[in-house]
Structures are given as C-alpha cells and as structure tokens.
Amino acid sequence: MARVKRGVTSHAKHKKVFKAAKGFYGRRKNTIRAAKSAVERSMQYNYRDRKIKKRTFRALWIQRINAGVRELGMTYGRFIDGLGKAGIEVDRKVLSDIAVHEPETLKALVEKAQAALAA
User: Fold this and answer.
1) Which family does it belong to (predicted)?
2) How many whole angstroms separate alpha carbon 97 and alpha carbon 108?
3) How far apart are CA 104 and CA 95, in angstroms?
C-alpha cells in the first residue's frame, strides 16, 4: 500500500485560515497556531455582532427620531404613542429617514400624533 502524503491538504487548510487572518497584527497573520485561534475568536465576534448590529441601528433610529421630534416640541415616547393611536404604522427606520431628510413630513406626522393624543 502506497503512503499518503498530506502536504496538499494541510496547505489548503492553512491557506484558508491565513486568508481569514489577512490584516491581523503580528504573528496572528502568519503563524498557523496564532492565526487559527485569532480567526476562531474573530468568527465568534462576527456571529455575536451580527445580532448586536440590529440593536445598534434601532437605537440610532430612535435617537434621530427623538432629535427631530423634540425640535417640534414633543418627546419620542409621546410621538410613538400618538402615531399608534392615530393608526399610523411606520417603522422606526423609515421615521428616522423622514426625520433626517423630510422635516415637513415629520411636522405633519407630529401634528397627527398630537391630534390623536388630544382626542
């Protein structure tokens, strides 16, 4: 039985790890033991932060809406409550975009929300 040389396989595996470690600092980019653990950890961060990204963006949208609405004399919480009572269903991403780019539309929404809260 002929012996199997495994150089090709291990080289391919190492190449895959080094490609993922591209841009890392020091030995973490060019030594397989250090690179392997660094890449593994980076994948954990990657997985975790894909979830955190959603929370971060929602928080950003809320801050933008709050800033836009406060200029018109209302708080974020009252605004969202008023929209709900007025039956206006717009998600926070779109509201944020409106607050940044279309102040007239936001003003109209605030007036509707105030009317719904007053009634």
Assistant:
1) Belongs to the bacterial ribosomal protein bL20 family.
2) 15
3) 12
Tens-digit pLDDT profile for residues 92-116: 999 999 999 999 999 999 999 999 9
User: What values do phi and psi take at 22, rounded to 5?
Assistant: -60, 130
Residue with token string 């102040």 = 103
Condensed to tens digits (0 to 9), the pLDDT of residues 35-81 reads 999 999 999 999 999 999 999 999 999 999 999 999 999 999 999 99
Look at domain 8-118 and name its CATH class.
Answer: mainly alpha
Q: Would you list the domain boundaries of the chain? A: 8-118
